[in-house]
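quick q for whoever's on today - can somebody do inverse folding on this one?? i tried earlier but teh output was garbage lol. tokens:
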């Protein structure tokens, strides 16, 4: 391609970065050409022009001013693009020919430092996920704060476990190896759920030896023991591939990434993705807004660091009693000491986002205002330290002992940088007077240069006696002394002739030459020197990065604890009792978000009690809108709040540590993957039953409502029995249902207790009392709720009529089936080796109205004999089919609920046969 040298340079750099939009520096602008220009013009709505480049047609071109480029780059990255920044690597004024250019940084969603995507109270994670033969290695990094995490997940735990873990962090950019990218659903899940940029890692970066060497070099260590990854090869690959990507894109040593934190996924309470959504921990389910979430209620933090730390605590509740109680003790001390809390809060309010300031220092992108923000943050640390001196709780006293007031760093910035510096580092005006003598002189030259020249002129007149001596200036000779010919005889020896004119002579002196150099070069030298000295201060801060980050994290934790104390005081929360018992007892529990909306005094508090022995399952019935879901959610939230170290909305709470919370609340289609509401429900329930333990808390609402009544009832019944079986699961459970037949289980499952929501009926209207009490209800008030919703009266009247018909027929049949199922269960328990016991039950089910009378079979009678006996009493071919089905059923390997469903199907066949017989007789 015959193009100009500059365009050839552009095309070569673009070819090396084909997946990026190239911001190509030309003077005071970044220019884009060809397809990039078209894309940027469209996305940013800026003018598309053209440029001659040696081709037959002008190249499409658009551009943005370099001083405003950050905003444009941020907007492109928010839209999912990667931007490669190509700078001039030489001074154009000192270079002949084409200026050397190169990529100085590639900005991606996971590496952007500025813009709307960077939220103060939320981390901006980029992650790498790599698979080995037996593990996944997951590494996460927030380059804006220097946080770097890594963990390991077993291959056998599957895609759902990976997505549940990623849901804690909501990464914006993800690097996946080929197998994870192509053989799992992770890539699709990341794109759909988090709108993340997902890329496949090239094979060559996954070489273990190269990965190990990269990490050793970065941390300046001799072995992986130094970072705790020797026994975790999958983690080595994940960390190294992420580090390699960051180095390639950032063109930076990444010195602030000085520590990898390995964490075990089992160190925190397990919360799957559905539970996080259902409990609305950090955002609302429908509108995806922070207001209306648990985080919004608890967040009284004063710093961005504290806000991020609080979010992590909400996302990752603790499961170790000692750690939970340590937080609770600190929260309690801050809550009880008003003056201490207010003093700490005042100090915290003056602290800027130190973590991200340190990140900008490490990147070399911080300006003087950033250093002043850091200085103001450091200013209050000694006072904050003094407030912690008298604290007694382990966590707060530990902070006092670990505290570093960083006074030396404060003094360095305070001594060097002016209090109100300009944003631009190239404008000068950065350094304080007295910090550097040369800078002071240059400023004096810049400010007082004219006075100096006037003083020199006056002095030379007096010393030489040349009354018309003048100091003048031109671009060729600079400053000079001009003497007319008539005064040449008075010119002293130290005057140096520069030029002779017809009527005068021009001279210079060493003093004038020195002043000239100072005046003419003062501004340029001043800017260059101030920038140099500024970078020295910035680099000095970078050498103390570990200290700065450690204090940032200590301040963040203190802010989080103070926030929990304020929330407890403002909302009337109490300190929970946390131990390793199997008890969950909450007296006067309230929903933290709902009570905030409707008011503390308007909310109806409720009690809940669960344990693993005699009160394991609470089966809750009652109409829609009565408060069942609120009650169950509030129980889960109270447990979660307690285990994150927060006080809770209740009169009292005794909580045995829960390892996992699972919720199955509400339903929605997953149309993108072709999954119905019921399929989504069953997948979530399956996940719960496979991963819950005896120490888990299950919140199950309306299981089985997405299919037919008999199917749904059967599934719900089977699930309850499975949970109640301590050999299979035995988890503490709140189970809300409209299948009132399930309340009969209280008679057969000792650990199940029936509860209902109190409702007051007033004619066709009902009043919800929102109180959960022992007992059950036998109907759901669905038509009354429909009446409250405003359905037309004729629809409601017809609904009443239809309900009366159904209750007189179908519900009667359904009750027969339920009773039969109970007998199946009892028979199997009493005589598990006798198939005939199930046939006795079948006889009852098939003959509810004695339509076909078959004699009771003794336990010694064989099933086959029943066929002959049936024919003696008027049996039809359909009846033989039913007996055949019973005879062939493998009852010993059939669950009670499979047996129940079989019986229901056989009963329908019998009814159809009987109906046909009656018609044929007529």
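ok took a stab at it. sequence:
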């Amino acid at each position: 391609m015959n193009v100009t040298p500059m365009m050839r340079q552009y095309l070569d750099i673009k070819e090396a970065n084909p997946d990026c939009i190239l911001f190509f520096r030309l003077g005071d602008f970044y220019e884009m050409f060809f397809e990039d220009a078209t894309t940027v013009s469209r996305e940013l709505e800026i003018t598309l022009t053209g440029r001659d480049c040696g081709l037959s047609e002008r190249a499409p071109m658009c551009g943005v001013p370099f001083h405003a480029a950050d905003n444009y780059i941020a907007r492109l990255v928010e839209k999912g693009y990667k931007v490669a920044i190509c700078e001039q690597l030489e001074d154009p004024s000192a270079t002949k020919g084409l200026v050397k250019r190169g990529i100085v940084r590639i900005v991606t969603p996971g590496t952007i430092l500025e813009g709307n995507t960077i939220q103060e109270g939320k981390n901006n994670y980029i992650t790498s996920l790599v698979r080995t033969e037996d593990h996944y290695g997951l590494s996460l990094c927030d380059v804006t704060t220097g946080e770097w995490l890594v963990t390991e997940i077993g291959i056998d735990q599957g895609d759902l476990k990976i997505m549940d873990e990623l849901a804690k962090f909501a990464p914006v950019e993800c690097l996946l190896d080929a197998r994870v990218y192509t053989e799992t659903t992770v890539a699709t899940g990341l794109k759909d759920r988090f709108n993340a940029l997902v890329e496949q890692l090239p094979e060559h970066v996954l070489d273990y030896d190269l990965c190990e060497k990269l990490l050793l070099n970065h941390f300046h260590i001799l072995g992986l023991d130094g970072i705790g990854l020797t026994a975790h090869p999958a983690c080595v690959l994940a960390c190294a591939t992420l580090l390699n990507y960051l180095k390639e894109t950032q063109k930076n040593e990444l010195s602030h990434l000085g520590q990898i934190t390995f964490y075990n996924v089992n160190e925190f309470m397990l919360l799957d993705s559905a539970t996080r959504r259902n409990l609305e921990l950090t955002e609302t389910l429908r509108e995806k807004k922070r207001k209306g979430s648990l985080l919004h209620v608890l967040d009284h933090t004063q710093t961005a660091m504290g806000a991020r730390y609080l979010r992590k605590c909400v996302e990752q509740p603790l499961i170790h009693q000692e750690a939970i109680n340590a937080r609770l003790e600190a929260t309690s001390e801050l809550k009880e000491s008003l003056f201490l809390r207010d003093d700490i809060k005042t100090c915290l309010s003056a602290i800027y986002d130190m973590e991200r300031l340190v990140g900008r220092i490490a990147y070399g992108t911080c300006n003087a205002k950033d250093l002043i923000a850091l200085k103001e943050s450091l200013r209050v640390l000694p006072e904050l330290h003094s407030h912690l001196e008298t604290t007694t709780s382990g966590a707060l006293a530990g902070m006092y002992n670990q505290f570093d007031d960083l006074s030396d760093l404060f003094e360095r910035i305070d001594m060097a940088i002016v209090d109100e510096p300009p944003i631009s580092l190239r404008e000068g005006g950065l350094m304080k007077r007295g910090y550097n003598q040369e800078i002071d002189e240059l400023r004096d030259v810049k400010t007082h240069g004219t006075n100096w020249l006037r003083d020199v002129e006056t002095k030379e007149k007096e010393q030489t006696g040349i009354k018309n001596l003048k100091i003048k200036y031109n671009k060729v000779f600079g400053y000079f002394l001009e003497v007319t010919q008539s005064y040449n005889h008075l010119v002293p020896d130290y005057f140096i002739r520069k030029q002779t004119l017809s009527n005068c002579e021009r001279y210079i002196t060493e003093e004038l030459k020195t002043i000239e150099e100072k005046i003419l070069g003062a501004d340029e030298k001043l800017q260059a020197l101030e920038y140099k000295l500024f970078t020295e201060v910035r680099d000095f801060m970078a050498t103390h990065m570990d200290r700065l980050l450690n204090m940032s994290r200590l301040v963040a934790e203190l802010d989080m604890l103070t926030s929990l104390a304020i929330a407890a005081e403002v909302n009337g929360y109490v300190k929970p009792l946390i131990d390793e018992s199997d008890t969950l007892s909450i007296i006067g529990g309230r929903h933290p978000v709902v009570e905030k909306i409707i008011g503390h005094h308007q909310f109806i508090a409720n009690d809940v009690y669960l344990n693993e022995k005699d009160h394991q399952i609470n089966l809750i019935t009652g109409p829609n809108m009565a408060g069942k879901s609120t009650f169950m959610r509030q129980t889960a939230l109270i447990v979660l709040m307690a285990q994150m170290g927060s006080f809770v909305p209740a009169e009292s709470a005794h909580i045995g540590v829960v390892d996992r919370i699972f919720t199955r609340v509400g339903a929605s289609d997953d149309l993108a993957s072709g999954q119905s509401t019921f399929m989504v429900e069953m997948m979530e329930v399956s996940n719960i039953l496979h991963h819950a333990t005896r120490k888990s808390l299950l919140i199950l609402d309306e299981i089985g409502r997405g299919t037919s009544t008999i199917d749904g009832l059967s599934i719900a019944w089977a699930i309850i029995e499975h949970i109640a079986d301590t050999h299979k699961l035995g988890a503490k459970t709140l189970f809300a249902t409209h299948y009132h037949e399930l309340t009969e289980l209280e008679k057969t499952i000792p650990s199940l207790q029936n509860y209902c929501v109190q409702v007051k009926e007033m004619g066709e209207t009902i009043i919800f009392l929102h109180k959960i009490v022992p007992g059950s209800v036998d109907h759901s008030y669905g038509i009354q709720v429909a009446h409250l919703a405003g359905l037309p009266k004729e629809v409601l009247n017809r609904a009443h009529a239809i309900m009366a018909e159904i209750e007189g027929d179908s519900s009667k049949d359904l009750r027969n089936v339920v009773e039969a199922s109970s007998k199946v269960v009892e028979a199997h328990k009493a005589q598990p080796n006798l198939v005939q016991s199930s046939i006795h039950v079948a006889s009852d089910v098939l003959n509810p109205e004695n339509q076909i009378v078959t004699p009771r079979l003794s336990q010694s009678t064989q099933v086959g004999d029943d066929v002959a006996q049936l024919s003696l009493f008027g049996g039809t071919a359909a009846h033989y089919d039913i007996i055949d089905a019973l005879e062939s059923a493998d009852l010993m390997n059939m669950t009670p609920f499979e047996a129940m469903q079989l019986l229901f199907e056989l009963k329908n066949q019998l009814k159809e046969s009987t109906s046909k017989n009656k018609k044929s007789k007529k």
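fwiw The longest strand covers residues 752-762. also The domain at 5-107 is CATH 3.40.1170.10 (MutS, DNA mismatch repair protein, domain I). so keep that in mind when u check it
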